[in-house]
Description:
Blueprint: E1 2-3, H1 32-38, E2 50-51, H2 54-68, E3 80-83, E4 100-106, E5 110-116, E6 121-127, E7 133-138, E8 151-154, E9 160-163, E10 168-173, E11 179-185, H3 187-192, E12 199-200, H4 201-209, H5 222-230, E13 239-244, E14 247-250, E15 257-259, E16 265-269, E17 276-280, H6 286-307
Antiparallel strand pairs: 1-2, 3-4, 4-11, 5-10, 5-12, 6-9, 6-11, 7-8, 7-10, 13-14, 13-15, 16-17
Amino acid sequence: MFCIPATSNEMIHICTQAESHGGAAIYWIHDEPLLRYLGVRPNIQKFEPTLYKRSQLLQHIQEIQHETGKCHKIASKNRLGVLLGNAKCDQTKTMTHVLWSLLNSIPADTVQRPHRHNSVALDLCVSAEPNKVYTLMGKEIDSEGFIVNPIRCDWVPGSVFITPPGWWHSHHNESSSVAWVLPVQDAGLYTYQRTLDIRFVDDELKLHKSGRIRGSAFDITNKAYTEMVQIGARVPVPQKIHVEGGVTKSSDDKEAVSAAGMKRVFSAECLLSTKRLRCTQIGADPDLVRKLNNRFTSLEGHVESIFD
Length: 308
């Protein structure tokens, strides 16, 4: 597999040897549709032509397999693959600044539970036993983590199927041999914008059962915090607080509640003035929620009077 930056020069492809088909076919994926949508053209070479050799990829996969033993058979670690990266894309760990790829294998008699991401995937089936390896995909999952009314895409060597952005999908290998797939996604762009939002179904079910719903799967790492501080950001300083007469005050009392230096608030704009309502997070305190509802009721009255 090779990756070439945009060039205005002519590229000539030559097949010097064909094992069985009497020729060679080129599977070509590029980001020209994105450039056309933006109305731009590349004028800077962002990386050098890169060659990924089959022997090197398989060698890395064997090294991983030897290090992990049979851990890839465990439900949470049932995939074994190698990311195709580029030294010029160290931040996103992708093949180009837009495109991402992974040579992924699915062991025999294995199911990869559903996951989803915002990037679209073009999946090239490299190797699979006919009618025994497939992908299920759909927009929703049920309470047990199974895809609702899924579409089935059977893996056929040399064929390609598309995983739409945001759709849940699971991979199933019911054969007695390893299946191989080479997906290419526009995940480099999403990763750079922190909007890839990849989620695994069992993690989401665990959160939901604990009464939590995640807004984003993007996490700020300790390194990110450090870099933000270096450019002037401030990290909230924990402090002791207590409530006296409905008013929150700082306290040196050891039994006082420890809280971060920032509070979550809801804000609402009053349409008749520039006044901003600062409100404690809903559900924190019944009395405060009652006061908050009264404020919003008053605000809704202003809205109705305006539109009436």
